[in-house]
Amino acid sequence: MDTQNLPLQEVVIIIIEKGNKFLFQKNPKWHDLSFIGGKVDPPDKTPLDAAYRECGEELNIKRDIDYTLEPLEPYLIQEEKLSKRTGKVTLYKFHIFKMIMKRDLTKQFETEENVWLEKKDINNPPSDVHLSEIVQTVFPILDL
Fold this sequence. Notes:
By secondary structure, this protein is α+β, with helices and mostly antiparallel strands. The protein has helices spanning 47-59, 106-109, 119-123, 133-138; strands at 8-15, 17-18, 21-27, 32-34, 36-39, 67-82, 89-101, 114-118.
């Protein structure tokens, strides 16, 4: 398919790891677990700016005080897929970042919306764990 004519959606994904566990958020709209992150919006100058904005909004933490972000290899993953939101085939560009905590934030992350999963449960989820399609696609590609 010619990707030049597809709608483009840039998305940031923030990987938060503590020990052998990774942080995800419950997505009430789709009833699954998603990465921390979201769309790159027009006010964002770069995907990194969007990633910091999303961390502030979703986790209520302070850039450079609580954490920093670094690109994670592979930094950019592209995929054509049907958008649940628009119903159109869309070219997604996923920009992947890893959170470096400047202090232990795990207690602050223990909320009703957040879920820690072990790597084995991401690679082979139990029947009661519903991972988003993006998690299922992107996580195995990452070198974690």
